[in-house]
Amino acid sequence: AQSVTQPDIHITVSEGASLELRCNYSYGATPYLFWYVQSPGQGLQLLLKYFSGDTLVQGIKGFEAEFKRSQSSFNLRKPSVHWSDAAEYFCAVGAPEYGNKLVFGAGTILRVKS
Amino acid sequence: DVKVTQSSRYLVKRTGEKVFLECVQDMDHENMFWYRQDPGLGLRLIYFSYDVKMKEKGDIPEGYSVSREKKERFSLILESASTNQTSMYLCASSPGGPNSINYGYTFGSGTRLTVV
């Protein structure tokens, strides 16, 4: 079965600093990987996704993520964080052989201090 | 703009009540999903549906049922609400077909249910 681990429950960064949110997955073959963001009181918005090709993917709002098969990781990065990036971030994994279901991590809450 | 609409943002219900959470999508998506979101647990799949009148259990179906009479609407039913069902409920949809998972999901804004 697929699983996703987000090791950091909370992360606090200063505005303008770089950001990396960690995501590790458990799956045998090449998974379909996603990062979603949830602003307070809102649903989830897709930031970026990976399922093949270049292992560094670009998303919306200046985010990027790198797929590393050897480490079973798909970490989310941003070079300079803005106060509006404060939100909860979810990593998710899926695969066609498991149907169209996504498995989500527990989430990482990002706080941005000015 | 494509949309998944959940009819209520906030609901307060009493223990033992039958509760209906409604979700409508306007994207002609085959797949629809209900998740519940709890702090520290992320999103857990309750039920999903690949087609009209079709449903499958997710990871935590106990105490819930669903209905999909029309393609655009997917309802979550709490047969007898209990306090441990107090949570945020999120509906999502996605296109159907093989490998459609690469599209990801479109989510609604969520319904925060409190059972007292």
Structure description:
The complex is a heterodimer of chains A (114) and B (116). Chain A is mainly beta and 114 residues long. Chain A is built from no helices and 12 strands. In chain A, 0% of the residues lie in helices and 51% in strands. The model of chain A has no long low-confidence stretch (mean pLDDT 92). By secondary structure, chain B is mainly beta. In chain B, 0% of the residues lie in helices and 51% in strands. Chain B has strands spanning 4-6, 10-13, 19-21, 23-25, 31-38, 42-49, 56-57, 64-70, 73-78, 87-94, 106-107, 111-115. In chain B, strands 2, 5, 6, 7, 10, 11 and 12 form a 7-stranded mixed sheet that branches. Classes of the chains: A mainly beta (114), B mainly beta (116). Chains A and B meet through β5, β6, β10 and β11 of A and β5, β6, β10 and β11 of B.
Give the tags.
heterodimer, A: 114 residues, mainly beta, four-stranded antiparallel sheet, 12 strands, 0% helix, 51% strand, B: 116 residues, seven-stranded mixed sheet
Short overview:
Chain A has 114 residues and is mainly β. Helix content of chain A is 0%, strand content 51%. In chain A, 38% of the residues are buried.
Q: Structural class of the secondary elements of chain B?
A: mainly beta
- Poorly predicted regions of chain A are none
- Percent range for helical residues of chain B? under 10%
Largest interface: chains, residues each: A-B, 28 and 30 residues
Task: Report on the biggest sheet of chain A.
Answer: 6 strands, mixed
**What's the total count of β strands of chain B?**
12
Q: Report the order of strands and helices of chain A.
A: EEEEEEEEEEEE
Number of helices of chain B: 0
Proportion in β-strands of chain A? over 45%
Based on Cα principal axes, name the global outline of chain A. globular
* N-to-C SSE string of chain B, H for helix and E for strand: EEEEEEEEEEEE
- Spans of at least 5 consecutive residues with low confidence of chain B: none
Mean pLDDT across residues of chain B: 93
Strand content bin of chain B:
over 45%
Number of strands of chain A: 12
What is the general shape of chain B?
globular
Q: Give me the Rg of chain B, rounded.
A: 13 Å
